[in-house]
Design goal:
Layout (H helix, E strand, L loop, with lengths): L9 H15 L19 H11 L7 H14 L6 H14 L3 H14 L4 H16 L6 H16 L9 H25 L3 H14 L4 H24 L3 H28 L6 H18 L8 H12 L1
Helix pairs in contact: 1-6, 2-3, 3-4, 4-5, 4-6, 5-6, 6-7, 6-8, 7-8, 8-9, 8-10, 9-10, 10-11, 11-12, 11-13
Length: 309
């Protein structure tokens, strides 16, 4: 079981790591929040400096972006746009594989404004990306930042760089990504029950996100294994039967999560990922089946396909 719970492939991790960068490098658009004053430059020089930073989106140019962002922070001490520049600085350092600098910048930003939602979001997502790459140094920080920003966003707040209309359009995407990041971090911290809750929230916002379904299945598999060990060691027959019944329910949820991950990862460009997840699902299904077979799995896949068609 432990081998089945190893992170799947470099391809999955690479695509997810790059996807966050691509989303952050894109200007998104689109209601419902009260209007408020958005950060604005006070001088033409400040505005020009800001634009020079934000227009750098290529991965190869992130060192230059970090340099310009730090220069902006050093020069414009009273700028209303410092929070967004800190976010860009974090992205640049993370892309340059310098997480220590990224989190150092984040902590400096939060010392200036503890409620900088842009920075809190970015730090949580960055910590999650690092876990997927094998760096677990910022797991606990990422969970704390993620919970902090999730609470504020659920209460109706939104990051400073968005208008109410833009945030309304982007909310499901951003909330889905945030809860997915929190869930990944919680799995790394062995907080699997909490991860299940976070990943279910991610799926509520992004029902077709295959990786949230996949990670939910992994969290459920970890809980399944924990309860299986407890059931084996339990001497009280009534309690043991209670645990066995619980196992059956968790197994059903786990297989459904994997099936949804398989179905939602079908499509051009995702063939290798789909094959990996499908293979892992079949191994889990067979190893946890009373008959040690794949009997019934095709029917489950067919049922899940109707959910998304």
């Amino acid at each position: 079981m432990k081998k089945l719970l190893a992170f799947a492939t470099v391809a999955i991790l690479l695509v997810l790591a790059l996807s966050v960068f691509a989303q952050e490098a894109t200007q998104e658009k689109a209601a419902g929040q009260p209007a408020r004053k958005r950060p604005a430059a006070k001088t033409e020089e400040e505005y020009t400096s800001y634009i020079e930073i934000t227009k750098i989106t290529e991965i190869a140019d992130q060192a230059k972006k970090a340099e310009l962002a730090q220069a902006f922070l050093d020069k414009f001490k009273q700028s209303e746009m410092r929070g967004m520049i800190y976010r860009d600085l974090i992205i640049a350092y993370a892309t340059l594989n310098n997480p220590e600098k990224a989190f150092e910048a984040g902590k400096q930003a939060l010392s200036e404004d503890p409620n900088n939602l842009s920075v809190l979001l970015q730090l949580a997502n960055t910590a999650s990306d690092l876990v997927l790459k094998g760096n677990k140094s910022f797991t606990n920080d990422g969970i704390a930042y993620g919970k902090q920003v999730a609470e504020k966003l659920e209460a109706g707040d939104y990051p400073a760089e968005y208008s109410p209309e833009q945030w309304q359009q982007q909310r499901d995407l951003r909330m889905g990504l945030l809860y997915r990041s929190i869930g990944i971090l919680q799995i790394d911290a062995k907080q699997n029950e909490a991860a299940i809750d976070s990943l279910n929230k991610a799926i509520k916002h992004q029902p077709r996100d295959f990786f949230s379904h996949y990670m939910l299945g992994r969290a459920q598999a970890a809980v399944y294994e924990s309860i299986r060990v407890m059931a084996q060691a339990e001497k009280n027959r009534a309690r043991q039967q209670e645990l066995i019944n619980k196992l059956k329910g968790i197994r059903e949820q786990m297989i459904m999560s994997y099936a949804r991950a398989v179905v939602t990862s079908e499509g051009p460009g995702l063939e290798n990922m789909n094959k990996t997840i499908d293979s892992e699902m079949r191994a889990l299904y067979q190893s946890t089946s009373e008959t040690k077979s794949l009997k019934g799995l095709p029917e489950i896949i067919a049922k899940v396909k109707t959910e998304f068609n």
